[in-house]
Amino acid sequence: GGGGGGGGARLAYPLFDQQLEGERVTVFGARGAVPGVVAVRSTHLTRGRGGPGSPDPVFTVDNAYVDIGASLAADVQRLGIALLAPVSLAKQPHLYGDRLLAAPAAGWRAACAALATAALSKPSVPGTVVIAFTTQSLYFANAGLETVTRLLGPFDETKIVSLPVKYQDTAVETVELRAADALVKDLVSWMEGR
Fold first, then answer.
1. Does residue 12 lie within any of the structural domains?
2. Phi and psi at residue 96, in whole multiples of 5°?
3. Whether 73 and 114 share a structural domain
4. Count of domains for the chain
């Protein structure tokens, strides 16, 4: 949803706030980045606070508390943290299950790693292969690719590398590392013209 009603715009999907509860974060203050954690309400002490028959309130960033380890307001000021200081989720990759990787943008990162691995394997290519790591844009999806094509192209073939993910665009976006391994083999074969 976007803004409206005169407040600052919030670009978020329905579960954005919930992915922050209980997670490590970084608070950006006047004196630099400070690690912290978003507090979690006690389920034992707050259950049923909405009144009889009403559900417990859903966590939102509007009522979040971030613990940065300061005991006094003066400690917070010394760290350079002010009210409404920017906060971001601390990016922590997590391996689980049968070679699954969960992290913000795990799919794009694993695809980039697969491309780098394929290139470093020094495939026997019949000509020239140009490898470019480009960015996507909200306004023009292939801006980076178009720039590379203008500078170094035209190209006979272009391959955009990606991997399927679960929980896309969340802090726990998940990619199968088996799929990344298969992508490396596919890229080497493609570069070698097989």
1. no
2. -155, 170
3. no
4. 2
Residue 29 lies in a domain: yes
Cα(74)–Cα(47) distance, integer angstroms = 33
* DSSP-assigned states of every residue in 119-149: HHT----SS----------SS-TTHHHHHHH
- Look up the pTM and report it: 0.63
Burial class (CB in 10 A: 0-12, 13-18, 19+), 92: exposed
- Scan for tokens 């170094």, then name that residue: 152
User: Given this model, what pLDDT does residue 45 score?
Assistant: 67
User: What's the rounded Cα separation, in Å, for the pair 114 and 187?
Assistant: 8
Domain that holds residue 42: 17-89
What are the pLDDT digits (tens) for 134-164? 877 767 778 888 889 999 989 999 998 999 9
Cα dihedral sign, 12-16-21-24? negative
The closest of 138, 136, 140 to 160, measured between CA atoms, is 136
Shared domain check, 98 and 65: no
How far, CA to CA in Å, does 167 sit from each of 11, 115, 131? 17, 22, 28
State pLDDT tens for residues 21-68: 888 899 999 999 999 999 887 766 666 566 667 766 777 888 788 999
Res 46: pLDDT:
64
